[in-house]
Fold these 2 entries.
Entry 1:
Amino acid sequence: MAQANLSPEATKTPPIEGHPHLPDWKWYDYFTFNIDHKVIGIQYLVLAFIFYLIAGLMAVAMRTELATPDSDFMDPSLYNALLTNHGTIMIFLWIVPAAIGGFGNYLVPLMIGARDMAFPKLNALAFWLNPPAGALLLGSFLFGGAQAGWTSYPPLSVITANTAQSMWILAVVLVGTSSIMGSVNFLVTIWKMRVPSMKWDQLPLFCWAMVATSFLALFSTPVLAAGLILLLFDINFGTGFFQPDAGGNVVVYQHLFWFYSHPAVYLMILPIFGIMSEVIPVHARKPIFGYKAIAYSSLTISIVGLFVWVHHMFTSGTPPWMRIFFTISTLIVAVPTGIKIFSWVATLWGGKIRFTSAMLFAVGLLSMFVFGGLSGVTLGTAPFDIHVHDTYYVVGHFHYVLFGGSVFGIYAGIYHWFPKMTGRMLNETLGRLHFVLTFIGTNLTFAPMHELGMQGMPRRVAMYDPQFVGLNQLATIGAFTLGISVLPMLINVIWSWSRGPKAGGNPWNALTLEWTTPSPPPVENWTILPAVTHGPYEYGVGIQPPQPDQPALDEA
Amino acid sequence: MQGTVDSQPAASTATAAHHHEEHPDLRVLGLITFLASEFLMFCGFFAVYLIYRSALAEWPPEETEVELLLPAVNTVILVSSSLVIHWGDTAIKQGDVAGLRKWYIVTALMGTVFLGGQIYEYATLGYGLRTNLFSNCFYLMTGFHGLHVFIGLLLILGVLWRSRRPGHYNANKHTGVEMAEIYWHFVDIVWIVLFTLIYILTLF
């Protein structure tokens, strides 16, 4: 949006109470309790990435076990614990905190011309709930590890109950609390703290996505908390909420769980859609196609997304009328999602595309996500779902959406905003190598799973029938490729952060407000707040992108 | 998204919202958003309760009948305390700190009586958390509400503690007072739903 109008009469706002006014960030500032939204954003991203590596190693260990039909690499109970914690950590401590906490906190104030989030201290508190949650999950391995899967369905989670299962519950409640705090902060910030000249229809699409995400988190997370509290009481205090012999009903837990955990897939993809809507127009040098359609479709997804959770329970004795209702509502979610996909394709159409690493991941995401979305439509249809329920088809589907979708999106975001965050450019050659390895690895790992599922291989098991061995070994090779694919990125980030070429304020010639401040942005983001004089995506219509490195900005 | 040319860059009149945490609008809006989320958690409990109530023939089972008189008195106390706390808020809006303190002390006392009544009820009911599915629901839901009453009490005591400093709250500066009041109303609304579900509906 954004051309900065840096006229002298532009507003100077009073400094924020409690903000450290450091001339420059030192590395150790990122390890302290800091209330600057940019520090918190980077803290989220780095911590989440560490958890990503840990949970990724868990996946590689599991795939090593699955290279042979027998259980000869690890004990089945260890396999169960790895399975549970791999899913839990990837969802709650990698994708959600990286996409929402990391990019959301870093970008939202910068994109709307605010000096910080509405509640900086609450923001820091929300972040610092994550390390103890991670410690609880990893520490649970000392007690055998939670083994009931990331869904922790009773009665299994109660029968096998141990200290580790309770630790798992507390960890998930902690990250849930963090997520609610974050959502309150995002909603109030975007609602009340936009620079006065920014109208709602000039809000960058990433911020629209954060509005939709926050609404969804605010309404669904507490219901999961309710379910987990009841489960905690069942395990530790002898209640019978989900104990059939005490009159309780296990399916009630499934309802409470999926009322959150289905929307959670939108929590993991809506911010990514926001990242896509920022990356694609910048690197295709074209105005985004259908700004309003993209903004409204985010809101539609978050509302319809609240009414589809039973499609996870088609085989739980769900009555036929419910299957029909939830099949239809599930298929309806494909419509706003399709609107977004077509808008991005239309934006690419005829654009002057620059195949930067960010753009490669964005385009890769388009193809992966369409594939995962289509297999999702098949799964949302009750008759087919009943056939492949709890098989590897499901595993293949959600990994296409979560890895090919969310993780590709986070990568695209990192390549796009790394210069803004660190002031340095990433190496493009390593970036391309990273993309190629990731793209091949993703398809090699998760495509065979669809066929395995169709043939009837069940998920969540360490041993399987020898007839499935060929495709499983293919998937294992893919998993190792994915494991290796992270290395070029790690090397790239670490090397470029200290030695990379200087980025300048606006290396991509983008028009949103975050590029109107130097890279990395100073504390409180701007000396004088920018003014919004045009839409955020008006590329190719003669608007000169701001070049904030010119000394005019820092003076004043 | 059509770019509007704003000839008044970041108008200086509209910067109030950038004062951050000190800005009352932000804090009140944040609290209301948060309470909406809290309410959804209670809705999870309400849903569980209603599912089991509709599934079981006998609800509540005979050995776990609820007492009505004490909770009814308690309800009257809690509901009227919402009025009392509002008088305190009205007082400070007119700059009357003594009035604020008086009514907030009364509210805190009423809240304490409510919690005391709840503890007495627990002690005299003759059944515990584990007795059956009804008692599971009963103790968990009323207990969770009691926890929220306790948090509300802490907020009120915090307001009272701060109001000792002259000028901490005045006619123009009373966001903390208002937030404690909003929270107290929230606790009250949840109780009305709970009371209806658990106590009134067991009569039928």
Entry 2:
Amino acid sequence: MSLLRLITQKLAAAGVTILAVSAVLFMAIEVLPGDAAAAMLGGNTTIDQLEAQRAEWGLDQPAATRYLDWLAAAVQGDLGTSFISGEAVTAEIAQPLWFTTILVAIAAAVSLVLALLFGVLAGLRPGSRLDRMLSGSALVVVAVPQFVIAGLLVMLFSLTLGVLPAVSLVPIGGSPLDRPAILVLPVIALASFGIAWAGRLVRAAVADANAAPNVRAARLAGLPEPLVVWRHLLPATIPATAQVFAWLIAGLFGSTTVIERVFNYPGLSEVLISAVRNHDLAVLEGVGILLAMIIVVAFLLADLIGTLADPKRRVRPS
Amino acid sequence: MPQTHPASASTLAASPGRSQRVRTLAVFGLATALLTTACGSADATDAETDIVRIAAADASGTNGLDPLAASAGASQMVVRHLYDSLMVLEEGEYRLELAESVEPNEDADEWTVTIRSDAVFHDGAPVTAADVAFSIAALAAPPSNRVSVYANVDFENIEVVDEHTLTIPLHRAGADFRESTLVVYSPVFPAGTVDFSKGIGSGPYRLDSHDDQTIRLTAVEGHWRGSPPVATLEITIIPDATARLNALKDQQIDYAVGISATGAQTITDNDEITLHNGGLETAFALSFAMNQQLEPFDDPRVREAVRLAADRQALVDTALLGFGEPAADVVGGGLPGYSEAITARSQDLQAARDLFEAAGVTELTLRTGEILPGMMSAAQLFKQQLAEAGVELVLDETPADTYYAELEKLATHPFQAFYYANRPAAVHLSAVTVETAPFNVTGTTSQYWTKLAEAQTIVDDDERSAAFTRLQDGFYESGGDLLWGYAYQIDASHPRVGNVTISQGVPWFGAASLG
């Protein structure tokens, strides 16, 4: 299969995925009791005012009509306006999305480096004391809920040692990068799971590759061990590892909903919670679609890396 | 097509020991730099001294600059400090603020408001009657979220008499206009304001800077109330109560508005943190509300039996961990105008059992949810208490996030957990038990509405107060609330923050001091 065809196929699948995400989000918010008008006007209203507000926002229209109207605008790049704030969705979520992306990017980078290190060290000698220690530790970390890990980190580094802030307060008008200290604990909380989860999968891929005939042949041929690992073992793990890290990106974005809440990190989680609570469909769809796009791109890149790294699947230009 | 470059791979492979050392050093270097930067930054935030950093939750999704959209919590606090109000409830009393006088005509269907002449907006313009007229009209119409508070105000016919005087007509006589409307919510902003992003009011603090999470206010020198002692307030929205308390313990903030009872228990012996109990003035009144118009609660024996089955002290101890007190079935305990005849019923299981048997009731269903911390614990305990009175209670648990989303269900479910802000009884009865109230969960009847409307038209303050006392007594005797407890709002601060009072149900820092 040519690279261009592969990319075209993946992009088409991505389009269908994003469409499905938008439909699922719409249906999810439809089945929740209440609507945006009731959420905005709250208890200080009357049924007549509620109906008037619903009519003004088009909430009295059938669900299919509202979804298709929204979709028609969305495909032209207009994600709509927040019911609650009256702001354009793109403006409303741009900053929280950026802040969450900063957090995930750093956590992913830390996870990538340390999971690879863990996976290679443990996978090269399956069953060794080091492997048992690393794998056992990873199992413990994966088994403990992330909010518990986050709480323990706060207790240790903030409330006991006093070296890191307990909550992520960003300077007014600034970004988390202006005060890197507020990133440390959320990153550790996110990355601990990422390292443990991805590390175990990388370890399995390395262990499999380690038992492959070409690797054994390279060792028997007398190549130095680092060269065996670098030239023959690691390339074989790239397709699987790339997929693991695409899943990791998706998982990290999902985990931020918990971690951001614990640390009061000003990312997307509060926007999402508020959007669901207030039935703010345009905001929910906007966040959902942008996250879906990021994750779809991560998987697309993983597929491409896997294809390029696999000699059997690689297609040379003629 | 990218491929591993043989030369670079060989180079790395040729010196594995060196490359490993380099990588190890790089990892340690990165970690050290991160922690050094982190510690340095943490110290840097504590540099300012003449500032109180406050954290609170907010349910409105707004930051309080727009008084038409603010609700409780952080947004209400910002409104309270940026904007003067015509009247306020402060330290448990109704007080004139921007208004110098608020007087009715003979029939109490038109009110004359005179405002102070020394109030100035933050942009330097004087506060005039035209500004007040505009503000009331804006508050009374959508998209304001206080439309029902001003439902009786004929805002299209407000008349500006002179620079400091205006008349406000009502649709029907309302002798309780001051306490049922102006005291509830009456911030004033400049006439013509459409964009509230500058937050221009006439309050003791002006907007300095803000983003979606934090609002920074600076003191207005020469404010008519006097210059605030604390130069700067920084109000940050932190939704999670545990995070607020952690931020306080970590000295990232100075004052946490609303911490959980569990959190309060953990710091009662901590000398570095002061607990502030808001008492009844900021408490929530917790109810298991019975709709008198629906079976089986249309039978007064059933309502009485439910009230007698409750051990209120046990409910408070279990659900509120002691941070509250038993209530007596009518909202407003400890506040102005509360009937002296009202006392909390004691549990009487035998009487409750007899009444249930006489009414033929053996099972009830309570719609409930964790709408406030402890509410589910209370429902579970009440289930046991009712069982002792011979009635099985089925708990219909509803997620807290969607509890209030279905107005239809709120209006038609016979028995449900509910809570109210503890406001003066006259305000509560006028706002919550009237015919048009969206949350008439106790199913008040037309007979009651007639009596309430009559009471609201009595111009003489003493006579009106007596009429509202009779309404309260009637509500206590046979109303639909099993109001079992008041949950205190517990704030926490560093001991250096003093003189914080309660105004409009939120902490007020206009006279705060720093030790």
